[in-house]
Design brief:
By secondary structure, this protein is of the alpha/beta class. The protein has two domains: 198 residues, 2-Layer Sandwich (Nucleotidyltransferase, domain 5), CATH 3.30.420; 77 residues. Helix 5 links the parallel strand 6 and strand 7. It is globular, with a radius of gyration of 22 Å.
Length: 297
């Protein structure tokens, strides 16, 4: 066994049960052979920004990587990325530079080209992101085209806990499959996200993308506790209700998103001790076309 045969060394280490070795991610090695099955075009999107506040932060790096996938979640091909920088109105905060490596010099003089972005995104049957609740509102600020597309999320639309996988960061999830990558740059994160989508889940053995698409296609329902008294807030919070302040989304009230199996249960809860037995709370259907959008928060 020599350094010329690293895989044998890795196997020997892992077989002891005392080591777990991470391999550098290589997206091309994760692709499956095209067997002639009809494919659709997906796009993985990632945005680096000046902060975490979607309303007050600005994008500084934008990337989309197209890929061809089948309805059952196989990925056959990955295509050339679209990558653009954007100079914000204020200097990039030092903490963002520390995370991403992006400096004011990287983005100086650059602006996002919406027409190019629109033409590129128009090909997508679905747009994926890791933490789409962050990336989608940014993307919709860049172009309304992103509001018309269905979205999926490799962080939230995969039942990771059910599969025995802890952690939600992209790097943590990939390390569960024994891979590492150079993160926090937009194209790298997109390619890593597509790679994650090709993995097989540890318990079910199903492809990550297959489960993601299955979950994303299912509608959820947003139930508003409209008119709930102030003293009910602790009970609602303990049940994971959140407070809505955006009138474009719904009433100024506590709300929760549930699957179809929980609608009646949740309405019964609200009628039983929060709103009164004769009150019918507002219920809005949420699909992949609205999910993670600022329009559905």
């Amino acid at each position: 066994m020599t350094i010329d045969d690293p895989e044998s060394m890795v196997r020997a280490l892992e077989e002891t049960g005392e080591y777990r070795v991470l391999r550098r991610l290589n997206l091309t090695q994760q692709l499956e052979t095209n067997d002639g099955t009809a494919v659709r075009r997906g796009i993985f999107l990632d945005i680096e920004s000046t902060g975490l506040d979607v309303l007050n932060s600005e994008p500084i790096e934008f990337a989309m990587v197209p890929f061809d996938y089948t309805a059952d979640g196989r990925v056959f091909a990955v295509h050339a990325a679209l990558h653009q920088f954007n100079e914000p109105s204020e200097p990039i905060p030092p903490e963002i530079t520390a995370i991403t490596g992006l400096t004011d010099e990287h983005v100086a003089g650059h602006k996002l080209d919406r027409s190019t972005i629109d033409a590129f995104a128009d090909q997508a049957a679905v747009i994926l992101a890791h933490n789409a609740a962050f990336d989608r509102p940014f993307a919709e600020r860049i172009s309304p085209l992103f509001a018309a597309k269905p979205w999926g999320c490799t962080m939230c639309d995969v039942p990771w806990k059910e599969e025995g996988v802890e952690g939600r960061r992209l790097s943590d999830l990939l390390s569960r499959f024994s891979y590492f990558f150079n993160g926090h740059r937009a194209v790298d994160d997109c390619q890593a996200g597509i790679s994650l989508a090709t993995m097989r889940l540890p318990k079910s053995g199903r492809r990550v993308l297959e489960r993601l698409l299955e979950v994303a296609r299912q509608p959820t329902w947003r139930i508003f506790a409209d008119g709930a008294p102030f003293e009910a807030k602790d009970a609602l919070k303990s049940r994971r209700y959140r407070w809505n302040t955006d009138p474009c989304i719904g009433p100024r009230a506590w709300y929760i998103d549930v699957g179809p199996d929980r609608i009646e249960t949740e309405i019964a809860f609200l009628r039983g001790g929060i709103l009164g037995s004769k009150v019918t709370p507002p219920v809005h259907e949420i699909t992949a076309f609205q999910r993670y959008s600022s329009r559905s928060r």
